[in-house]
Amino acid sequence: RQMCIRDSCMDLTVSADASCQGTASTEDFDNTTTPSYDPDNDPITFTVNPVGPYALGDTPVTVTVSDGTLSTTCTATITVVDNTDPTTPSLADVTGQCSATAIAPTTTDNCTGTITGTTSNPLTYSTQGTHVIVWTFDDGNGNIISVNQNVVVDDVTAPVADYTTLEIITGECSATSSAPTATDNCDCLLYTSPSP
Fold it and tell me: 55: which DSSP letter?
């Protein structure tokens, strides 16, 4: 009695899971075009070594096909690829009254771990208004995401007068006042009193 295996093994490519590993059943390595068979129609079993899970990249394996009496082996390669994007982070607004500076945010990836965002935009803004930083997160395996973060510069603090009271300016024919000043958290402001 003799068992025949015709091109029984085939290479596999699988996606990495949340732990950056790939898995496959032993039967997955059996060639679907010319599958393994037993001429006597006895049931056959498959074993594979190593059994997995498999690390990112290529791993050679040896597949053994047996009908319980006879067995034969062949070799194949399982390739684990990272097809998963980094986790999209939720980025809070960066705020400030006179200026605001963003700090590079981080996110996580199933294979790379912690990824720090990069950007070509400025990190510090001193112009009043809302500015947008576009952060890029690249896991090094071809999976890249972009996430926007707002930088809001909004001065909500009123100026404080440098004088609690203003001097009364008098004159017989005319009177001239000097513009009083006030201090602001963002700027030094000059206020002009109404004309007498």
Answer: E
Euclidean distance between CA atoms 128 and 185, whole angstroms: 13
Q: How do residues 48-98 score in pLDDT, each as one tens digit?
A: 999 999 999 999 999 888 877 777 888 999 999 999 999 999 999 999 999
Alpha carbon distance 123, 125 (integer Å): 7
Other Cβ atoms closer than 10 A to 60: 10
Point out which residues pair with 117 in neighbouring strands: none
Task: Give 169-174 contacts, CB < 8 A, sequence gap 24+.
Answer: 169/196
Structure tokens at 85: 């994007």
**If you search the block for the tokens 């001065």, which residue do you land on?**
155
Q: Which value, to the nearest 10 degrees, does the dihedral of the CA atoms of residues 152, 157, 159, 161 take? A: -160
Q: Which of 162, 92, 147, 151 is nearest to 126 (CA)?
A: 151
To 10 degrees, the CA torsion angle through 111, 117, 118, 120?
140
Q: What value, to the nearest 5°, has the Cα angle with vertex 172 and ends 168 and 177?
A: 40
Say if residues 108 and 86 touch (Cβ distance below 8 Å).
yes
More reliable by pLDDT, 8 or 130: 130
Cβ neighbours, 10 Å, residue 135: 21
pTM as predicted: 0.76
List beta partners, residue 30. Answer: 9
> How much is the pLDDT for 109?
98
